[in-house]
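Hi Y.,

Following your request, here is the sequence exactly as I used it, all 123 residues.
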Amino acid sequence: MNRQGCSTGHSEVWFDLYEDWGLIEASFATQYGIRLRNEPDMSWGEFTTLLAGIMQKTPLGQVISIRSENDKDMLKHFTKEQHRVRDKWRNRKVKKLVTMGKKEAESQIQMFQDMCKNAFGKN
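Below is the corresponding structure, written out as tokens. Let me know if you'd prefer a different format.
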């Protein structure tokens, strides 16, 4: 997913499945016409594939674009709200890096993956 979120090699993660769930739901509805709450049989594999394809013109895509922007010329033209969104995300990332150890982070990731597999099927 590169800039869209999931780590592929050394890419950074630009969304949080828990905190951004509303944006994910809205983006699936916008881009695919899928209401996730009405999709009890969607497999984990299908969900992650669709999530990887979320485009910039969706609610999640727009927020990811703001969070991941590093171009100084683009940042000069950001609104106060865009700066707030970007700064909040980057400050959150720094705080988590300082407070969460590697074992705890791995445990949290595994717990979330297990929860999603149970919710969306075993694929």
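The first helix runs from residue 21 to 32.

Thanks again,
Q.
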